Amino acid sequence: MPKVICVGGPNSPPDRSSLPEALLQGDSSAEGTQSPDIEWVFCESIVDAFPLLEEEDVAGIWMSRTSLPQTSEIRGMMQSGLMLRDMPEGVALLDADLRVIWANHRLLHWAGRPSGTPLGMTFYELLHNPEIMGPDFCPFHTALATGDESSSTLHSMDNQYFQVHAAPVRSAESPRNLIVTVGEITDEILQQQKLAAIHQAGRELADLRPNEIFMMEVDDRIDLLKDNIQHYLSDLLNFEVIEIRVLEQTTGDLIPLLSVGIDEEASDRRLSAHPRENGITGYVAASGVSYVCHDVQNDPLFIPGVADARSSLTVPLVLHDQVLGTINVESPDVAAFSDSDLQFLEIFARDIAFALNTLELLVAQKANTAQQSCDAIHSAVALPVDAILNDAVHVMEGYIGHSPEVMDRLRRILQNSRDIKRTIQQIGQKMTPLEAVPADEKLDQNAILRGRRILVVDHDEQVREDAHQLLERYGCVVETAHEGDEAVLMVRRSAGDDSYDAIISDIKLPDYSGYQLMLRLEKVMAHVPMILMTGFGYDPGHSIVKAKQNGLHPKAVLFKPFRLDQLIDVLKTVIEANPNVQNPPGSSPDDTPPSDEDPDAARTASGGTKNSIC
């Protein structure tokens, strides 16, 4: 039996003359307004009639004139229906039980139900019961209960994400219905998750516990960092061909740190931070700007890292506006890298730069601690060893020509005492790796001081101690004496490799003046590399004038208090003027000098006294 939906309620049944002829065929009723062969279904409003239209046995719909909308309203409803049906966002009308009254094509497509809205199905059932991720875990009930709009995020079983917005229908005819709009935000959510994973990976790059830092050597920490970088770039960002180079600040060379999938010839290629003839890597290191090469065959800057590379992405490693290096990835596909890839790699590159800087700080801190330990040990034994040397040369003077065996033993005492200080220095150098020395201290400007033997003569113990502390940082071998006669014996018993390259003496010694020491040393040395120290205006007997007249270098005078750089300059001047100067044993151009700017070592003119070397 066909059904006719009657909009307007049972109190306004249709007149028989208003019914279509098709519905009256077979009607045996002679009178009355309703045919016994038609089932009438009454609805208060057209909104209530919508769900019934889905039934197959509905033959028609009748509306009373009072329920009939205006023509313009009908036209608007038709146009709105077409727009809602085909709009790119999902739209649905729900009843108070969250059952779907109507859904547009887009929502049915996302739900995998292109044939139409299944009757009686709730909204959650339509989307296969997705997970509610919040922030409102009951958005529909919130909208119904409060009359306000509410939103939430849904995660479907097939890993799709939807943003759902529910709003109550503001109509007296259907106050318990909801209008729901649905947006597909899978790409946005996945990008957010990827960004979060990248930030987490960046935090874990060089994340070491204190016990791990204590146990691991520099090379072990570098290997750990390289393994973490490779893991995250491959598994998280899906990059298979990777090259990371670190910029050497003094030379501008880009030193390979990590190469994965790169041809050996390309990995060994020498590159510099220069925009010409150094490929895209050199250009990025020089400019500090990322570079996307969509097609290597049409890019004049590109130098292949692998034979089948067709596109590349290169990003600088930047920290505090300073380029530390570059990271380059390549692909066998043309235009393989998107804006998202660029964004992700730039974010991760900042984490890599931070990890590299942290690693350098850890290395420097460990090296500084090791150096301080060696300095403390050396400071504790330096003056006692000097006392042994002083006593040994005194005893040797008394045994000359008497006991060859005793002389041999005394010579061994001298040698062993000097070896003690050399050993401490060598241990300190081994415990302070080259990587820990800042780039601006790797200059070779003070290389001439390394390995030079310096004798400091002063009655003040603080002066002798400062001489060890300051000059040995530059690789000098320092020995001290209390007075002039002791200094003469030290020089007399130092020959060959143990001869002194410079002698620094106070102008007033306990036994005689620095000038008189210079005269006595001329009897045992072919050339006396003398430097005299004195306080301002303190020069009894015009010793400095007489010394200069007797061959003292014009610049070989230090007026207390003086700065460290003044001491170094005078010392270098005297050594360079020494005709017997040769490269000291064990020195090489690759040795690293200490800094001229050590704040603990430098003394200012206002802070020194006559009893201080600086």
From TrEMBL:
Region (Disordered): which ranges?
A: 1-33, 578-614
The alphabetical list of record keywords is: Kinase, Phosphoprotein, Transferase
Q: Which Gene3D superfamilies match?
A: 3.30.450.40, 3.40.50.2300, PAS domain
The organism's place on the tree of life at top rank: Bacteria
Q: Give any single GO term for biological process.
A: phosphorelay signal transduction system
Question: Can the keyword RNA-binding be found in this entry's annotation?
Answer: no
Q: Which PANTHER family match?
A: RESPONSE REGULATORY DOMAIN-CONTAINING PROTEIN, STRESS RESPONSE REGULATOR PROTEIN 1
Its recorded name reads Sensor kinase
